[in-house]
Amino acid sequence: MTLLTKLNDDMKAAMKNKDKESLQVIRMLKASLQNEKINLGRDLTEEEEMTVMSREMKQRRDSLAEFEENGRDDLAKKTEKEIAVVEKYLPAQLTQEDLREIVNDAIKQTGASSSQEFGKVMGVVMPKVKGKADGKQVNAIVKEQLNQN
């Protein structure tokens, strides 16, 4: 079952259940996938679908941080609900320990020894954790590990 098929099925279920909030988010996700498909001029691969979903999640997390920073609790609560819906379509997120292990492997693989080689390590880590971890979290762990070396 493709992600688009799953979104269509969930959209129908949300309509039947009169779940307007979920329906709105699912429609946005579906539109993003279809726009990406049109831009590429072909069907999306599973990896490309995850890239789109990750981008949608990142947008919502960034919005949530801004809303909380500016005291907009009403918008923050709405965005938290949207994040919960988007999470259903992403793979299970990696734990801190798993991320540290992947980062340490990447450091060994690249031979990085200082924070100046941050880009090399991120280049190895990000394809492995695509859709499974927040980029800011990965960034912080890589910096932390490189500063320890």
TrEMBL record:
Keywords: Coiled coil. Residues 4-50 form a coiled coil. One of its GO terms (molecular function) is carbon-nitrogen ligase activity, with glutamine as amido-N-donor. Pfam families: YqeY. SUPFAM superfamilies: GatB/YqeY motif. InterPro entries: Asn/Gln_tRNA_amidoTrase-B-like, GatB_Yqey_C_2, YqeY/Aim41, YqeY/Aim41_N. The keyword Coiled coil applies. The keyword Plastid does not apply. This is GatB/YqeY domain-containing protein. It comes from Tetragenococcus osmophilus. The gene is gatB2.
